[in-house]
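Repro case for the chain-ordering regression, as requested:
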Amino acid sequence: MRTAATLLLVSGAVLAQATIVNRLPFEWGAGPDLVIAAVVAVALTSTPAAAAGCGFAAGLAMDVLPPAEHAMGRYALVLCVAAYLVALLHRNTGSAGPLGGRPSVWAVMGVTAVASAGVGLGYALVGVLMDDPRVTLAAVVVNTLVGTVLTALASPLVALPTLWARGALSEGDFATVRGPVTPRGW
Amino acid sequence: MFRDSRRSRVLLAVLVAVAVTLLVLDARPGGNPVTSAVRAGGELVFAPAATGVSWATTPATALHENLLGGSDSERVAELEQANADLRDELRAARIDRERAEQLDALLGLAGLGGYEIVPAQAVTHVTARGYADTVTIDAGTDSGIHPNMTVVNGSGLVGKVIEAGPGTATVMLATDVNSAVGARMEATRKIGVVRGGTAPGGPDAKLTLELFDLQAPVKPGDRVVTLGSHEGAPFVPGVPVGTVKEVQAAPGALSRLARIAPAVDFASLDVVGVVVEGPEEDPRDSVLPPRPDEEDRS
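-- result from build under test --
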């Protein structure tokens, strides 16, 4: 149930990104990236392995959907690693707020901003390795900054419903199975 | 801090390996059956969704504007409703008229140049990461569109098709860094290349013209049309590209660089045409609009 809801929300974010956000004419190039927000929300509430799988799937979908102007796998690679790292760090540091409750809006926005900056730089790095002439220092700085700010601002739209759905459904499914939970961490 | 199970690490490694394999397969020149099949699948999902969004956005904006108004009595509500309906009709008519004007301009340009075009509408303008200058249009191989076809609108050159699925196609704009268009100066027939973005050592610009002839007379205000490629792919001849804004003669350079103001307003692309059949013969400068100063004088 939880998996189905997550799948639905993440694919919704991917489609919304491809058909709605990419349609808006942003003068400065990069727009907000709802997919990062959705993947971060999943990564904050699951195991690193599941997060990596989710990031890979969402990134691959964005690679495949038009305009497929970059090589397939580029975004999947970056998002997969980013989701894995977010989940790993979150799980091992347990910075989830009081009593491991749902992270606050600000925390989600902060994590999304960091993830978005990392994804922007990682994507540019893959471009450098593949000798993409579009990746210049000026373009990377502008795109990463603008993309990070816009993604962080737009992230609650996607991340909060995802977190809420995952939280609500996990209580029904796993509350009894989980057994004793430590007061901190997940 | 980085404690994790072995299985999870193996999964990450597998996913990364798959992504890198895809990258390598897809980055190689020439089509790859696996990646193009996957792209076709993605396009299958995208095309109806994009059509749905196109269909939904028009009433949604109208509804939003209707909701903004409030009323006290039924009469006022009724009148406001009537007013809103009329305003909606007017707005719809205006959008239709703008589209019709753009189509008219497109047809005019196609008629002047003798191009056979397929009209389409731009359904995306930006990419998620913002590096490439590409748009997606809502027509594809079903309408006879294939990669390496010229895309124009009523004002001039938009770009070329780089990817085509059954119902959508991706257009690389002339302003993309990877784009290079063979170009010719109006009247003098001096040839050069118009590249997207800024050439190394050139002026900061969206389009840069590189002229091979150092002696060729170029001055701001000169206009540039496409030179045309072999068999009209990727660019048909005679399409207006832009106007020279600034010429830079770098000492010791092998070519001259000039900043070009694009003929097309890339920020507000809507109706475009894909040239599916080039002209029988080079239309020379006949597609260029009349010079404004000449009109003033007459």
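Ordering looks correct now. DSSP finds six helices and no strands in chain A.
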